[in-house]
């Protein structure tokens, strides 16, 4: 913390020119796709590209931008010293003729320019498909502030007691403000603006999509340790300016934002009281101005900065240690008017100059209204990724894996932050700093608690194909296990633990060979590979993420080897051949759809293709190479009993929405709005689910292996019967209206388990971490596995804890048995065993039922 | 007609070409087939008279008929939240519209919103998300079940909202690509003419039709056994008070009278088509 107050800095801004008409928000936005990545080795911009392309549906092409921190001096044409010492002042010229004037007035008089150049771009912007507006010409100046200028500034503004670097930072901030005010915000015709000015950091943005920035400014091979990217979705105004796109900069940080503030005016006033006047008039600009104020002027440690932005409240506040409550209360009293209210999610790329560290932060609002996913993978490099959608994370990893930079397209861990919580503070940071041998990457939450990964081996770069070991082939075909996928899986399970990657590869080769031998063996191969891919088991010293890569490749090879439009049990179709779709040739024929080139939504999306196929009579549809495709399972209409759909890859939002009868299996995680208004049918998810899971569902038998995010089963009615083997962020079953569970109504079973790296299912620390459990429900019930009785009535809101009886056990047992059959989570060993001891159901499970409140009847 | 939040009774399926399916925040009665029947699907993002409150159907009104329509259990209180929990941002809204278009590619999408001060931004955002109709519901309408304090003190009167949205859509160059519908206290044919002259393409009426079949505006729609005149009740006895054929005559009379009045207004201005009245604020006079 600063020992001297930040007041002199605030006072020094009094002389800055302020636009006469302080208008309200000029841009309405809120919609966006955001992604960020941090790595201990510098990565090329092309790795950001695919994830931005896959998230284009979150933007509308009216603004996109990137920020890069932790750069490579050779690529910029400077020495390492200059990169570390100088500010990188980048000015975007919308009107090329003002450049000399801008330089003469705002640059040459104050700075020693060590190096300057025009930022490279393609020759003709029209060669980038979709770019309608010529992006600005950006000039990059490596500058140091002239000593006498700095001295004068410090003297004039009473800043002599501050460190030279602090005075310099403030001088730069004010200088850029003046430049922006004169050449951008005060004018009708925008002429120029400072697009970034921090050390070891560049920001580029234009009117287009975020991936257009990478293409136009030729960043495909440009390297950085930390990247953030953004697609904007502004809706107001016809003339779009690159100045309105994200990221916005404070000083040494760049911020992108998904969301929309309700209290913009309050924040403007809070900033105005500190002599800060936004120029670009968007939510995002004030967000980064807040960030800069708290970090540079007040010098709060990150934990307090995050608390000021996203205060801890309600039960989460009560659960904090006493000392934290005291400090947080002080922070909240001081900064509450500067805390953004409304849905928001920030990703920040930051150069912590003092600590020589580069950071990527993700901070979510306290009501968890925006989607966010975090992921980390450790291998030959360590990489952390944050995004609005999980499929965007896998897009980055997928491209890195294709280029053999990392061993697997799957992260070691995926999770969501719980906004404003005592558990993780709603924020996670990836920090790149000096390590023993080059740079290292650390990941921690708001409180500094590190995310630990198990120390296991990753897949080495094998490359060459593995030759088949004859004895293995014979061994694997012996006996009954050759006919039954589950038997086969149980048979190879010990090998999956004890053997190395080589051996596993050989097993997979055998399975692939089997797949070519005939219809039954192909079925066996696909089902067995799916089990290996879906199930949780001990992988010994091998990382599960690396094994998943092998299974993923094997499955894809098996699917791709199916010939197009044939007469076998399995027949394949893809985008190029979609017009060849005909009815199934016999009952039970399986249509295998390569979804890769289908659009993610729209009239000819993969989802519409599934509708067409069903219309032609297909009852068994398998999709693979899903890359964020949305609405799979929607539009099939009523009474789809008998239809089975399997999804492999990264399924997009709204999967299984409105389903009435069919059975959908997702062989990995699902994203947001999955199974909304689900009416009837079966849904199995071999992973997590996202926000608002089963919103307003009317029924369905649903099994989820992992966690749910915020608001699962909210406003659900009728008779959904759901098993969630993990837990959720909060607002589980709010306004649940599912009648009498014993008599045709619905319920949710929460097991609060998670898989550990050695394949066991272990109890999560908090069976339910939030403070809004079963709020204001009028029907149904929750059965939660809580042997330590940690769930308290403080977490309820219009519900009550009730005795768990044998009647309850009889009700839920059939679902737990099906759960065991699907996921291998044993009722006896995993559910009814507590710390090694077998226990009775009523010692393990607890029931939460609605309270008949006067107001609710 | 719009189904409103309640659901899509089987009885009206034969008339489905004339029925708008409403997707409200509780998504009651929203099933794939009710989306597929509808020529227009209406998202009710907010009501002029109950913003921020949400809806609450009391348990004893949830009879077997209601339960069937809403796919719930009988005699369980039913809640509609105030926001869509799946839409907290404009790109969520676009996803929402894309969902409907996946289920029924031919349906037109209507977005019904209340009238906050930035209703013009809401309108343009809806347009870019793919909506075909923007339906603004002002503060003077509202179901009898909405609390008085909400009805009289929230949102702006639709007379202010219509020109605000109309002018903004014109300045954005998209006015002719989206239909603007106004509701909220439209009671006479003159009100319709004024709304169109202010900039709307048309109006939605609700309370006026209820009054046509005998509503006395007593405000007791949801209490006890329900409406004393037999309109907003699920009680089997009370709902027999109104003879459907008599009701049909009354509503036909209402619209016939209105169309005569509207024609005479247009004739007075020398206009041949009601579309020519749109945006003709010069034909309106404010009494000082």
Summarize the structure.
The complex is a heterodimer of chains A (857) and B (288). Chain A is an alpha/beta fold and 857 residues long.
Task: Spell out the blueprint of helices and strands.
The complex is a heterodimer of chains A (857) and B (288).
Chain A: H1 7-12, E1 31-44, H2 46-54, E2 64-71, H3 73-76, H4 80-85, E3 87-93, H5 99-107, E4 111-118, E5 137-145, H6 147-156, H7 164-185, E6 192-196, E7 201-206, H8 210-216, E8 223-233, E9 248-249, E10 253-259, H9 264-272, H10 283-297, H11 302-309, H12 314-318, H13 322-335, E11 344-352, E12 357-364, E13 373-378, E14 382-387, H14 390-402, E15 413-415, E16 427-435, E17 438-445, H15 470-476, H16 485-498, H17 501-515, H18 519-534, H19 544-560, E18 570-574, E19 590-594, H20 606-615, E20 620-629, E21 644-651, E22 660-666, E23 680-685, E24 701-704, E25 708-710, E26 721-724, E27 728-730, E28 747-750, E29 753-755, E30 761-763, E31 781-785, E32 799-802, H21 806-823, H22 827-831, E33 833-834, E34 837-838, H23 841-844, E35 845-850
Parallel strand pairs in A: 18-19, 19-20, 20-21, 21-22, 22-23, 23-24, 24-26, 25-27, 26-28, 28-31
Antiparallel strand pairs in A: 1-8, 1-14, 2-7, 2-8, 3-5, 3-6, 4-5, 9-10, 10-11, 11-12, 12-16, 13-14, 13-15, 16-17, 29-30, 31-35, 32-35, 33-34
Helix pairs in contact in A: 2-14, 9-10, 10-11, 11-13, 16-18, 17-18, 17-19, 18-19
Chain B: E1 21-23, H1 32-37, E2 40-44, E3 55-57, H2 64-70, E4 78-80, H3 90-103, E5 108-113, H4 119-128, E6 133-137, H5 148-153, H6 158-171, E7 179-183, H7 189-198, E8 202-203, H8 207-212, H9 244-269
Parallel strand pairs in B: 1-2, 2-5, 5-6, 6-7, 7-8
Antiparallel strand pairs in B: 3-4
Helix pairs in contact in B: 4-6, 7-9
Structure description:
The complex is a heterodimer of chains A (857) and B (288). With 857 residues, chain A is an alpha/beta fold. In chain A, helix 10 (283-297) runs antiparallel to helix 11 (302-309), helix 16 (485-498) packs across helix 18 and helix 17 (501-515) runs parallel beside helix 19. Helices cover 34% and strands 11% of the residues of chain B.
């Amino acid at each position: 913390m600063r020992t001297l107050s930040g007041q002199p800095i605030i006072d020094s801004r009094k002389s800055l020119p302020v636009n006469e008409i302080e208008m309200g928000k000029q841009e309405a936005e809120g919609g966006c796709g955001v992604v960020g990545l941090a790595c201990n080795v510098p990565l090329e911009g092309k790795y950001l590209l695919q994830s931005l392309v896959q998230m284009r549906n979150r933007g509308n092409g009216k603004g996109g931008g990137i920020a890069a921190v932790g750069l490579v001096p050779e690529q910029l044409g400077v020495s390492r010293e200059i990169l570390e010492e100088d500010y990188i002042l980048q000015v975007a010229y919308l009107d090329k003729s003002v450049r000399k004037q801008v330089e003469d007035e705002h640059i040459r008089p104050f700075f020693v320019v060590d190096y300057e150049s025009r930022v490279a771009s393609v020759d003709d912007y029209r060669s980038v498909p979709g770019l309608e507006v010529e992006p600005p010409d950006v000039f990059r100046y490596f500058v140091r502030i002239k000593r006498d200028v700095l001295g004068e500034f410090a003297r004039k503004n009473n800043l002599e007691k501050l460190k030279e670097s602090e005075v310099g930072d403030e001088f730069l901030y004010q200088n850029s403000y003046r430049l922006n005010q004169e050449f951008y915000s005060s004018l009708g015709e925008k002429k120029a603006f400072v697009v970034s000015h921090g050390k070891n950091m560049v920001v580029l943005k234009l009117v287009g999509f975020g991936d257009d920035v990478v293409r136009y400014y030729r960043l495909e091979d440009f390297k950085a340790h930390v990247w953030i990217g953004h697609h904007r979705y502004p809706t107001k105004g016809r003339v779009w300016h690159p100045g309105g796109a994200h990221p916005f900069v404070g000083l040494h940080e760049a911020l992108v934002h998904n969301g929309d503030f309700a209290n913009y005016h309050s924040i403007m006033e809070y900033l105005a009281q500190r002599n800060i006047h936004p120029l670009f008039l968007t939510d995002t600009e004030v967000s980064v101005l807040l960030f800069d104020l708290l970090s540079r002027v007040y010098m709060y440690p990150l934990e307090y900065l995050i608390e000021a932005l996203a205060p801890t409240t309600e039960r989460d506040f009560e659960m904090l240690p006493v000392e934290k409550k005291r400090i947080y209360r002080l922070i909240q009293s001081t900064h509450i008017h500067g805390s953004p209210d409304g849905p928001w999610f920030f990703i920040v790329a930051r150069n912590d100059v003092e600590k020589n560290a580069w950071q990527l932060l993700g901070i979510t609002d306290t009501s968890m209204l925006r989607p966010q996913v975090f992921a980390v993978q450790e291998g030959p490099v360590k990489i952390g990724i944050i995004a609005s959608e999980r499929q965007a994370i896998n897009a980055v990893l997928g491209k890195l894996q294709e280029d053999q930079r990392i061993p697997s397209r799957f992260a070691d861990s995926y999770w969501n932050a719980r906004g404003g919580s005592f558990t993780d503070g709603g924020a996670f940071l990836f920090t790149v700093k000096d390590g023993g041998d080059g740079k290292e990457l650390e990941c921690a939450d708001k409180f500094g608690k590190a995310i630990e990964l198990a120390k296991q081996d990753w897949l080495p770069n094998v490359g060459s194909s593995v030759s088949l070991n004859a004895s293995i082939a014979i061994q694997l075909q012996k006996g009954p296990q050759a006919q039954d996928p589950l038997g086969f899986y149980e048979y190879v399970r010990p090998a999956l633990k004890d053997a190395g990657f080589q051996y596993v590869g050989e097993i997979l080769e055998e399975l692939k060979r089997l797949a070519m031998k005939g219809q039954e063996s192909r079925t066996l191969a696909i089902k067995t590979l799916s089990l290996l891919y879906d199930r949780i088991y001990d992988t010994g010293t091998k990382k599960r993420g690396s094994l998943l890569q092998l299974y993923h490749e094997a499955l894809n090879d098996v699917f791709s080897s199916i010939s197009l439009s044939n007469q076998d049990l399995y027949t394949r179709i893809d985008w190029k051949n979609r017009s060849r779709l005909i009815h199934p040739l016999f009952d039970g024929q399986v249509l295998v759809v390569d979804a890769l080139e289908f659009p993610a939504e729209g009239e000819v999306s993969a989802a519409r293709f599934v509708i067409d196929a069903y219309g032609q009579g297909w009852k068994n549809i398998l999709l693979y190479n899903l890359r964020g495709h949305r609405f799979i399972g929607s539009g099939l209409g009523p009474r789809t009993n008998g239809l089975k759909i399997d999804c492999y890859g990264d399924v997009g939002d709204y999967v299984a929405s409105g389903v009435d009868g069919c059975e959908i299996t997702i062989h990995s995680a699902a994203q947001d709005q999955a199974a909304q208004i689900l009416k009837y049918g079966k849904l199995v998810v071999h992973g997590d689910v996202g926000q608002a899971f089963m919103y307003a569902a009317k029924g369905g038998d649903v099994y989820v292996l992992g966690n749910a995010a915020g608001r699962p089963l909210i406003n659900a009615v009728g008779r959904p019967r759901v098993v969630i083997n993990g837990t959720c962020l909060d607002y589980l079953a709010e306004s649940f209206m599912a009648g009498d569970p014993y008599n045709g109504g619905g319920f949710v079973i929460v097991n609060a388990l998670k898989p550990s790296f050695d394949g066991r299912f272990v109890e999560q620390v908090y069976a339910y971490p939030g403070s809004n459990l079963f709020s204001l429900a009028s029907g149904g019930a929750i059965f939660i596995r809580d042997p330590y009785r940690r769930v308290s009535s403080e977490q309820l809101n219009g519900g009550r804890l009730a005795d768990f009886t044998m009647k309850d056990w009889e009700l839920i047992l059939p679902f737990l048995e099906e759960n065991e059959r699907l996921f291998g989570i044993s009722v006896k060993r995993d559910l009814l065993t507590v710390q090694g001891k077998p226990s009775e159901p009523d010692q393990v499970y607890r029931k939460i039922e609605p309270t008949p409140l006067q107001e609710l009847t | 007609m719009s189904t409103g939040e309640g659901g899509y009774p089987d009885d009206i399926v034969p008339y489905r070409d004339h029925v708008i399916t409403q997707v409200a925040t509780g998504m009651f009665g929203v099933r794939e087939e009710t989306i597929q029947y509808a020529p227009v699907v209406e998202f009710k993002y907010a009501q002029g008279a109950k913003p921020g409150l949400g809806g609450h159907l009391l348990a004893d009104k949830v009879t077997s008929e209601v339960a069937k329509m809403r796919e719930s259990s009988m005699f369980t209180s039913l809640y509609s939240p105030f926001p869509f929990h799946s839409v907290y941002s404009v790109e969520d809204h676009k996803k929402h519209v894309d969902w409907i278009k996946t289920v029924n590619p031919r349906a037109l999408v209507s977005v019904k919103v209340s009238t906050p001060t930035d209703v013009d931004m809401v309108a343009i955002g809806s347009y870019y998300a793919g909506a075909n109709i923007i339906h603004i519901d002002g503060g003077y309408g509202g179901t009898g079940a909405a609390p008085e304090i909400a009805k009289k003190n929230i949102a702006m009167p639709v007379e202010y909202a219509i020109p605000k949205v109309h002018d903004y859509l014109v300045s954005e160059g998209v006015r002719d690509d989206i239909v603007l519908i106004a509701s909220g206290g439209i009671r006479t044919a003159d009100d319709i003419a004024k709304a169109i002259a202010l900039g709307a393409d048309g109006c939605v009426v609700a309370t006026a039709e209820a009054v046509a079949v005998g509503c006395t505006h007593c405000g007791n729609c949801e209490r006890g056994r329900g409406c004393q005149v037999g309109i907003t009740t699920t009680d089997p006895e009370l709902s027999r008070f109104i003879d459907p054929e008599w009701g049909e005559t009354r509503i036909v009379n209402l619209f016939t009278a209105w169309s005569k009045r509207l024609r005479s207004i247009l004739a007075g201005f020398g206009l041949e088509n009601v579309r020519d009245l749109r945006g003709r604020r010069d034909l309106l006079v404010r009494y000082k």
